Amino acid sequence: MGKVIHVHLTHGIEGTKRKDWYFSSISAVYTVFTAEQVGATKNYLLHAGLSGNGTICTKKAIIKQSTLISCGRSGNVSDE
User: Fold this and answer.
1) How many distinct structural domains can be found in the chain?
2) CA-CA distances (angstroms) from residue 56 to 10, 29, 41, 49?
């Protein structure tokens, strides 16, 4: 099953107007942002219960994990 981590910044970050970012893992979030920018450490997010389409709200961001819906080679839609 594929997953996507959606980070919505509630406060802007200098140098970008972009507020919505999408990542393949929690670890990938921290290749772009610092813990201070997100409002939570990597270890906190790993243990905070994001699995199962969970949501974490901090003072600086809303972080959600969702299932990635993809289309297989046969054209059948799959949520795996």
Assistant:
1) 1
2) 13, 14, 12, 8
